[in-house]
């Protein structure tokens, strides 16, 4: 933080040094006369006054007036008044230091009218106020953008918590019922199912508290979820799952892939007609691709694919915020053949992305 503040102060000092030199000090150096010392003192005082007005306007006046309902008129009056006041003070400084008289002697000309507008100084001051006001607007827009981003992140954290809350009771108890049935017919499978359920619950409750998790953990969770959901499928439904083997260690937002898979099981399983669920996952060169295909069971007439879980619409929001310009998402629905397909590709992180949002 201290380093950042030092850089900011240094950048401001550099900007003002260049500004003052180019607009106030360099032009007199090109004149064919030797400028008196009091002239340079006058230029330096003008620059100091400009700097004071610049920061007073950028940090206090503009933020207070520009963003109020009736403040724009008052700000316009302030803008005109401060420019006029500056020109008046600059003229008084000239007269007190006798700059006009000394310059007229050097140039062998009659002294300038003290009430004449210094157009060059007027334009410089106008430029200072424009830049100052623009800086105030930029700071406000940046603050608003950060506020919106913080709200979005909190919204995402809430969605993730909602997903966890939904998985815990509904999925948990349905799976327990299936495992209970297995204890009468296939004890080894029931034991394996209990182990998978235990891993999933640990992952949901503890490992997803941050905003990034190792990809291997996310894939393991998804694999366990698919295996447990397969216990509930009827013979009419065919399940195909292609498991990836990541070439390196990657990180991903937790439970980002689940809504697509959950959606397929919700609308693709059928007890009365043949249907298929296909889940294909690939990880190559730092990119993850997911394809989820499912038939839409006839008993799901009136379905809405964006319902259930946190929904595909909310998942899109998570992708846009967490993987902006690093993902593509395509959904295809064939009403005639009653099929639905999701194609997702995203660029994975090689390092932990940190805590994007605090868990709710």
From TrEMBL:
Keywords per UniProt: Kinase, Membrane, Transferase, Transmembrane, Transmembrane helix
GO terms for MF: phosphorelay sensor kinase activity
Domain of life: Bacteria
One GO CC term, this protein: membrane
Entry-linked Pfam families: His_kinase
Entry-linked InterPro entries: Bact_2-comp_sensor_kinase (IPR050640), HATPase_C_sf (IPR036890), Sig_transdc_His_kin_internal (IPR010559)
Spans traversing the lipid bilayer: 7-27, 39-61, 73-93, 119-138
Residues annotated as domain Signal transduction histidine kinase internal region: 159-235
Keyword Nucleus: no
Family matches, as PANTHER family: SENSOR HISTIDINE KINASE YPDA
Protein name: Signal transduction histidine kinase, LytS
Organism field: Dyadobacter fermentans (strain ATCC 700827 / DSM 18053 / CIP 107007 / KCTC 52180 / NS114)
């Amino acid at each position: 933080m201290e380093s950042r503040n030092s850089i900011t102060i240094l950048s401001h000092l550099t900007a003002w040094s260049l500004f003052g030199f180019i607009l106030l000090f360099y032009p007199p150096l090109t004149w064919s006369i030797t400028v008196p010392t009091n002239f340079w003192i006058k230029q330096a005082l003008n620059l100091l006054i400009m700097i004071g007005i610049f920061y007073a306007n950028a940090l206090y006046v503009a933020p207070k007036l520009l963003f109020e309902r009736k403040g724009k008129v008052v700000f316009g009056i302030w803008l005109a008044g401060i420019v006029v006041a500056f020109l008046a003070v600059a003229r008084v400084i000239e007269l007190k230091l006798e700059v006009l008289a000394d310059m007229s002697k050097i140039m062998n000309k009659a002294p300038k009218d003290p009430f004449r507008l210094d157009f060059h100084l007027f334009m410089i001051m106008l430029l200072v106020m424009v830049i100052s006001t623009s800086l105030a607007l930029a700071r406000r827009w940046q603050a608003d953008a950060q506020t919106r981003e913080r709200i979005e992140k909190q919204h995402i954290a809430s969605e993730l918590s909602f997903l966890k809350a939904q998985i815990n009771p509904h999925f948990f108890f349905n799976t327990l019922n299936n495992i209970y049935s297995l204890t009468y017919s296939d004890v080894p499978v029931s034991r394996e199912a209990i182990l998978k359920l235990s891993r999933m619950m640990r992952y949901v409750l503890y490992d997803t508290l941050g905003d990034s998790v190792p990809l291997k953990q996310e894939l393991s969770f998804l694999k366990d979820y698919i295996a447990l959901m397969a216990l509930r499928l009827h013979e009419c439904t065919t399940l195909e799952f292609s498991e990836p083997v990541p070439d390196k260690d990657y990180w991903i937002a937790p439970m980002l892939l689940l809504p697509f898979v959950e959606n397929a099981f919700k609308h693709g399983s059928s007890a009365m007609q043949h249907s298929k669920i296909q889940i294909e996952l690939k990880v190559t060169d730092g990119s993850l691709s997911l394809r989820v295909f499912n038939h839409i069971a006839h008993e799901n007439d009136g379905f809405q694919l964006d319902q259930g879980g946190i929904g595909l619409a909310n998942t899109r929001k998570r992708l846009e915020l967490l993987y902006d310009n690093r993902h593509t998402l395509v959904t295809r629905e064939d009403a005639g053949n009653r099929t639905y397909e999701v194609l997702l590709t995203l660029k994975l992180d090689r390092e932990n992305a940190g805590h994007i949002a605090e868990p709710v």
